[in-house]
Amino acid sequence: MNGFRKFMMGRYGGDQFGMFLVILSIILCVIFLFIPVPYISLLSWVPLVFAIYRMFSRQIGKRQEENYAWLRKWGAVRTWWWNLKNRAKDSKTHRCYKCPGCGKKLRVPRGKGKISITCPQCGNKFIKKT
Ligand SMILES: [Zn+2]
Q1: What superkingdom heads the lineage (predicted)?
Q2: How far does Cα 102 stand from its chain's mean position?
Q3: What pLDDT score does 127 carry?
Q4: 34 FRET partner, CA 20 to 30 A, in 78, 96, 105, 114?
Q5: Rounded to the nearest whole angstrom, what is the distance from the C-alpha of residue 124 to the centroid of ligand 1?
Q6: Please, where are the H alpha helices in 1-130?
Q7: DSSP character at residue 111
Q8: How many alpha carbons fall within 13 Å on the CB side of residue 43?
Q9: What sign for the dihedral angle of Cα 97, 99, 105, 111?
Q10: What is the pLDDT, as a whole number, of residue 1?
Q11: What pLDDT does residue 87 have?
């Protein structure tokens, strides 16, 4: 174990991006099981090899940058998905209207009949049926 620790000294090790690469590799491996093209399963090794390369890399700054860049992208994807899910759930109880004055999206409860909506951003008033 001591030898391994010495070997890992000054090397990058694991991070979230590395974890993602390993999971991606496993997912690809499963997907490729169902695709009858010879050697396509080798593609699932690409992210895994990259993950291993990053783990043993000595360019720690570069690897950290990669991880941060990935975390930002992943965060954006998660937010997008979260919004999509919320909107689907929301659409049963609420409706979205665009303010004709400034274009801001306004959320109003459904099933209230004709209501007057006041835009909180520009003060524009308009009437809609919900
Ligand atoms: Zn407005």
Answers
A1: Bacteria
A2: 30
A3: 92
A4: 78
A5: 5
A6: 2-8, 16-33, 45-55, 60-90
A7: S
A8: 12
A9: negative
A10: 63
A11: 84
75: left (phi over 0), alpha (psi -120 to 50) or beta: alpha
Question: How far is 13 from 8, CA to CA, in rounded Å?
Answer: 7
Looking at residue 32, its pLDDT comes to 93
Q: SS3 letters for 108-127?
A: EECCCCEEEEECCCCCCEEE
Residues of the chain with pLDDT under 50: none
CB atoms within 10 A of CB 67: 18
Question: pLDDT at position 41, please?
Answer: 87
Query: What's the pLDDT score for residue 96?
Result: 87
Strand, coil or helix: 96: strand
126 CA distance to ligand 1 middle (Å): 10
**CA of residue 120 to ligand 1 center, whole Å:** 7
Give the tokens for residue 74. 């992943």
Token pair 């009437």: residue: 127
Rg (the chain; Cα; Å): 25
Q: What's at 90, amino acid-wise?
A: D
pLDDT score, position 117: 92
